[in-house]
Amino acid sequence: MLAAALVSCRQHPVLPPLPQRRLANDAELAIYRLLAESTYVRSTGRPVAVVSYSLDSACAGNACAPLAERWGVDSPWWASVADSQRARSANAALLRHAGDTIDLHAIGGVGHEQILPIETREVPVAESDAGMWGEFQYYHRGAAGLLRFSPVGFSSSGREAVVFSRWDCGPACGHTVVTALRADSASNWRVADMLLLSSRRPTNPNGN
Q1: Phi and psi at residue 166, in whole multiples of 5°?
Q2: pTM above 0.90, yes or no
Q3: What's the Cα-to-Cα distance from 43 to each of 47, 48, 109, 112, 127, rounded to whole Å?
Q4: Cα–Cα distance, 120 to 143 (Å, whole number)
């Protein structure tokens, strides 16, 4: 028994996988492009900018809710489009890879000219006023706004996916959503459900 105890003491604890830095794969790019084009380019009729690296999951301070709650994957809310087990599988995968850095530079290009990959240094700062946003649009082909995406969480079957995104379109304009998707084929994804998590709108000067 003593020998077994000594051996167990020498064993290394099981650690979570380290965050990865990698290029977005074909399935991820298909999902990012689908959301950028169908939800934002189509609705605004203008180009949209997409930050070239996945959203940082870090949040400091007492006001920060747990990541699963902030990213809308604390429950299998979209289980109506897939059974609960597959929904939980995709949600868990998103949280497991939340710290990864995904390179989205390839999101634009031929056939996707209305999607403009931009560097993090080009993103307007939180305190940017309407003039600064106007300057951002001037230098980015009149972009309606910018998108930040999380990594994508895939179910164990690979046919369901969930992704968090943040849309910014001005000093008091934007929202965050979590989207569930389903694959009709190896390269064809469709939006199955979408949940609005937060929304920012301009303040009405009349208080209405």
Answers
A1: -125, 130
A2: no
A3: 10, 11, 20, 16, 26
A4: 16
For residue 170, which of 147, 199, 145, 149 has the smallest C-alpha distance?
145
Residue ranges of the chain whose pLDDT lies below 70: 1-17, 81-82, 186, 202-208
CA 42 vs CA 37, 76, 114, 146: distances in Å:
6, 28, 10, 14
Check if the beta carbon of residue 194 is closer than 8 Å to that of residue 132: no
Residues in the chain, how many?
Answer: 208
Q: How many other C-beta atoms lie within 10 A of the C-beta of residue 130?
A: 12
* 151 within 8 A of 54, measured Cβ to Cβ: yes
131 vs 136: CA distance, rounded Å: 9
Q: What is the pLDDT of residue 79?
A: 79
Please state, in angstroms and rounded to a whole number, the distance separating the CA atoms of residues 140 and 122.
Answer: 10
The residues that bridge with 189 in the sheet, in sequence order, are: 183
Give residue 208's pLDDT: 43
Decide: 55 and 166 in contact? Cβ < 8 Å.
yes
